[in-house]
Design a protein that fits this description.
The protein is mainly alpha-helical. The chain is 75% helix and 0% strand. It has one domain.
Amino acid sequence: MSASLGIATRSLRNVRRLPSAFIPALLMPVFQVVAFSGTYAGVTQIPGFPTDRSVNWYLPMAVTMGASFAGLGTGFSMIRDLQTGFYDRLRMAPTSRRQLLLGPYIAAWVRACIAVVLVTIFGFALGARPVGSGVGTFSLFIAGIGMATIGTGWGLGLAYRFRDMRAAAIMQLTLFLGLFLTDAQTPIPLMDGWLEHVARWNPLTQVLDVARIGFIDGISDRDLLVGTLIMVAISTGAWLFAFTGLAGLDD
């Protein structure tokens, strides 16, 4: 465990040394929640829109996006460590592969917490309010950590396989597509054409339900359970993707 904490601490220190690798990913979701909730404020007037506050709809999307990019940040760092040879020396240390993986995950969770808190503060400043009980903020946090876990596994797996900056482009593109081809912008009943079908079958749509359950009406406990199970399943698959990629470095 000490090796994992050491790796996580080093990763977090790199944020201070290289803020340019962290600050843009932190400010992007803040910009999204400000821009989308302001630009599309009138979307709440559409019949059938599930909330009278546009920021309630867009805040969960921005939080999950920011948290997932906090996870991808570990992939960017891993590419740099692989190219400099630092990670080769680290793999020769007397520690297990699981600890080598756990370190970046811990760092990603810490960075995701920062992103979730910052974006949520901006969202509440813009008028976001939970509906019903206080489960809204908690579920938003859980969804953020879940997306950070997914982003970390996906980013590390790609970094281990490509070992250069090609992986960075794939990380960002696939994550953007995965989140934006959901109901991130508009509820599915208000969609039309091919996007409606893609969003309906995109598993990340259910993950967004977990983030939104406390901020809009119409999401049931069953939706929460399904979204949580999907999030756990994707996180597990992403971890396996990263673990097999790490094992492949020995070949």
